[in-house]
Amino acid sequence: MTEPLPDIPLPSTIRARFVESINGLRMHVLEAGYETRGRPCILLLHGFPELAYSWRKVMPRLAAAGYHVIAPDQRGYGRTTGWDGNYDGNLNSFRLLNLVRDALGLVAAFGYRSVDAVVGHDFGSSVAAWCALVRPDVFRSVALMSAPFAGPPPLPFNTADAPFQPKPEDPVHRELAALPRPRKHYQWYYSTREADADMHRARQGVHDFLRAYYHHKSADWKDNKPYPLKGWTAGELAKLPTYYVMDLARNMAETVAEEMPSAAAIATNQWLPDRELAVYSAEYTRNGFQGGLQWYRCGTSGAFTAELETYSGRSINVPSCFISGKQDWGTYQRPGVYEAMQSTACTRMIGCHLVDGAGHWVQQEQPEQVSRLLISFLQQAHARGRMDLTS
C-alpha cells in the first residue's frame, strides 16, 4: 500500500483536489475561487520543470478579481497519474493535440462549455496556443507566457510539378557540435535516453539541481540580457546561455551546477524560498523528469508534425496577449518567432509585455505584475467580445 502524499503548502484560498477520468488521467488540480458558483473560468497550464504549484502566487489574485481558477499538474507531471513515463513507451499520448484534449476534458468536467481564458507558461504556452487555435469556441482568449507561438507548421506548397525533394536534415546540430567550443541544443539533449537520469540522479541531488536551474534562468542571474538573434544558425544559437545551448560534453545537471547561487543568495531569495523549492524537489525526486521530457521528444522526433500540419495556414483569432520576463531568453530562443506571433500567428493581440525584474519564471518572480497584466487583458478581451456581439 502506497504512503499518502504530504499536503502541499498552499495559500488558504487555494485547495488541492483530484478529478477522475480526464482522458485516461486522474488529474491533480489546484483550484481558487471555488466558493461561489457561476464565476467565469480561467485555466492555467504550467511548463517544464514545474507544476500547478507554479501558479500559487497569481491564483488568489485572479480569484479575488472574480474568476474560478483551475491549474492542473499536466500529463507527465506531479500528482497526476495515468500516464506512461517509460522512455521506450508510446509517445502518442504526449503529443500536443492530446494535451489539448486533456485541457478540454478538464474544463468540461468542471461544467464549463467555455472558459474566459487559457493561460500557458513555457511548454504550457504551446498547449494554450493550440487550445485557442483548435477550439476557439471553448477557449475564448489566450495568454501566452515566456514561449511565443509561430503558428502551425506549413504544408509543402506548389510541389506537384517539381521533382521530389526529400526533407533536408537540419544541419544546425552538426554545426553546433563542430564549433570551436562544441555545443548542443537543450531540446535535443532532453530527448535523449540519458537526460532523465542525469537530472534525477544528479550528483548534487534533485533539490540543488533545481535550485541552480531555476536560478540560472531567472533575473537573479545577471548575465540574462536577451536580445533577438539573426537566425537559426550555429553561430547565432551559440550566443544563447548554456541552459539553452549547452556545452557538448556536459549534461544539464553539470551545466547549471556551475551557476549554483551562494548560501546567502538562497537564504534571501524571496520569489522561491527553499521551503517552496522543496515542493518541486519532492515531486521530481518521486517521479523523475521523464514525463515532462516526453513532450520534448514529441517535438524533436517530428513524429506528429503531419497531424499539426492539418491546421496549416490557420491563426489564433481570439484575443491574445504575451507576457514574459524582460530578462528571459525564452522570448528569443527561436529566432523570428516573437515577431511571427505578432504579425501572423495571432490576429487579435492586445499586447506584448516584457516584465522587468523577471527571467523565465515570470509568474513566480513578479506575480503582482503578472496578475495585474492578466486581469487587464481579461477585461479588455471581455470588452472586445461584447463589441463583437453587437457589431
Outline the secondary-structure elements.
Blueprint: E1 14-22, E2 25-32, E3 41-45, H1 59-64, E4 68-72, H2 96-109, E5 117-121, H3 123-134, E6 142-145, H4 172-177, E7 183-185, H5 186-190, H6 195-200, H7 205-216, H8 234-237, E8 245-247, H9 252-257, H10 263-267, H11 274-287, H12 290-301, H13 305-309, E9 320-325, H14 337-345, E10 349-355, H15 362-365, H16 367-390
Parallel strand pairs: 3-4, 3-5, 5-6, 6-9, 9-10
Antiparallel strand pairs: 1-2, 2-4, 7-8
Helix pairs in contact: 2-3, 7-11
Describe this structure in words.
- By secondary structure, the protein is of the alpha/beta class.
- It folds into two domains: 14-154 and 305-390, Rossmann fold; 172-293, no CATH class.
- Helix content is 37%, strand content 14%.
- The chain is built from 16 helices and ten strands.
- It has helices spanning 59-64, 96-109, 123-134, 172-177, 186-190, 195-200, 205-216, 234-237, 252-257, 263-267, 274-287, 290-301, 305-309, 337-345, 362-365, 367-390; strands at 14-22, 25-32, 41-45, 68-72, 117-121, 142-145, 183-185, 245-247, 320-325, 349-355.
- The strands form two sheets. It has an eight-stranded mixed sheet with strand order 1-2-4-3-5-6-9-10, sandwiched between helices. It has a two-stranded antiparallel sheet with strand order 7-8.
- The radius of gyration is 20 Å and the shape is globular.
